[in-house]
Amino acid sequence: MKRNDILWKGIIEDLFDDFLRFLYEDAEEIFDFDRGFEFLDKELEELFPEKDVENVRFVDKLVKVYHREKGEQWLLFHIEVQAYRDPKFSERMFTYYYRIRDRYQKKITAWAIFSDPFKNYRPDHYEDSFLGTQIIYRFNTYKIINQDSALLEASPNPFATVIQTSLLSLQNTPDSDLVDLKLNLVRNLLKKGFSKEKVRALMNFLRLYVRLNSEKSAIFEREIKTITGKTYPMGIEELILDLERKAGEKIGEKRGKEIGKEKRTVEIVLDSYDIGLELDVISKISRLSVSKVKKILKENNRI
Fold first, then answer.
1. CA–CA separation, 140 vs 111, rounded Å?
2. pLDDT per residue as tens digits for the range 185-223
3. Rounded to two decimals, what is the model's pTM?
4. How many Å apart are CA 95 and CA 110, to the nearest integer?
5. Staple 94 to which of 8, 101, 137, 166, CB 3.0 to 4.6 Å?
6. Domain coordinates of the chain in residue numbers?
């Protein structure tokens, strides 16, 4: 699983209430936030056993959400974050729909969040017909590259910072300017008075989603410490373990509870590399020499 996939999965879970409010102006009237949410990643995996979870190139989430409407206890929220052009994307969305509906017999709403750099790529339906029989399946879409950064900056919703961050990553900005732009995002984030937990989640997303070279990354981290008065928000070892846990739970369950120490170490090295950590940091986390880390990366076609 690639770095950005891990980050998207984590931030959607951490800010799911804000995600709903971001998409629906009347979210408070539609959804019963007091009853919480249930993430059905394991159940979604069971519906698609043929998917190669090791090399998946898209983010999919299925969430149980309670509805305020009488007679509708709960519904299912299907989310896809798509970062590349896929001619079969609409068909995949439809396949998700009918498998989910067949299993749960509940109302489903689906959103495709396009994080790719192609402004005109925005499939929003699947259509098929044969001998007088026709099916048309439409789903909601949100195209990040077409958003207005100024409007996002002015938004009081924490999830707007996620979209701003993704939008920034799509722009061809030199690293020298990117440092200042990332720091501006941080300053704007800290002024909005979000909860400590949400700021922490957003800071992690911002730090790792928009990549810098090692020199500029060091400058960015020093400036963060100056702005906040501390290394914010968590140590890098805690961060990689947290991200690795979120991304690896399903894989671990499929392989069984007993995963060998060597295989586990390889997974940590690969996950660490995929979210953009430097080799010396990976060496520290995995407790392997830099040369052994390089060997694992080469064997798994990372370098």
1. 5
2. 888 888 888 888 888 889 888 888 888 877 888 888 888
3. 0.76
4. 12
5. 137
6. 3-228, 236-299
